[in-house]
Specification:
The structure is a homodimer.
Chain A (H helix, E strand, L loop, with lengths): L7 H12 L5 E6 L5 E6 L3 E3 L3 E7 L3 H8 L2 E7 L6 E11 L2 H7 L16 E15 L2 E6 L1
Antiparallel strand pairs in A: 1-2, 1-5, 3-4, 4-7, 5-6, 6-7, 7-8
Chain lengths: 143, 143
């Protein structure tokens, strides 16, 4: 990252646009034994660049990791342009009816019995700051 | 991860195969302020599932992170099958001529002046353990 040419507003707008085009992002958490952990995930709802929602199994290892430490990072890219973004923030595990209803969509039916499936948890990633980069043209922003 | 059906050998073979098909993987490091950090990266050389090589700019933020803590994780997936892998290990920053020569390829010419470019560093990820998952059919292995 030698150049930092974009304004905060430009970087934020570009991340928002890129986020709307990617199916899969990668989520990094503080894992066990001091190792970071990482996995691909599909967002189920995206609110601008401020909140990104996921669903996960209650038995997933990330649940324990996030209970221990909610600090997380998300990244995604366009394979075509190689534009990339990173978002830093905290991930919250939610189990209330309103959150479940908010994120529920038909695609989740293949994995869960319904929005009240007791094995499902909603994850809400609250963004603190972000970065956009496309071939060295980059910028950072804070929420 | 409810099921763990694959043997160590099967899981390792499947990760090796999947690794050979992906252009981009994601690298998670222990970043600053207790936050994990994450970014997409293109491997420049892959030795089975044991060593994965990258090139990076000396000025990249990951250099400082890896000097502080070499523990890292890598993940990738097939957008088609949604098969995914994770690898945990340590990332070493190398600056010797043999490593530079070993990883050098023509594609790097767009970024660096040559294999002896002083702004380039070689990164070698030494895998400790790994995981393969495809629709709940999964397995772990250690090196």
């Amino acid at each position: 990252m030698k150049e930092r040419e974009l304004t905060e507003k430009e970087a934020r707008t570009k991340v928002e646009k890129l986020l709307s085009t990617v199916d899969t992002v990668y989520l990094a958490t503080n894992g066990s034994h001091g190792h970071p952990n990482i996995r691909p995930m599909m967002p189920v709802k995206i609110d601008g660049v401020e909140k990104i929602w996921f669903c996960t199994d209650l038995e997933s290892s990330k649940i324990i990791e996030l209970i221990k430490d909610s600090k997380a990072a998300i990244s995604g890219h366009s394979p075509k342009s190689m534009a990339e973004f990173r978002l830093w923030g905290s991930m919250h595990i939610l189990d209330d009816a309103a959150s479940r209803q908010y994120v529920w969509n038909e695609e989740l039916e293949s994995q869960y019995t319904g929005e009240d499936d007791p094995t499902m948890r909603v994850l809400r990633f609250d963004v603190i700051s972000g970065m956009y980069n496309n071939k060295g043209k980059s910028g950072i922003f804070t929420i």
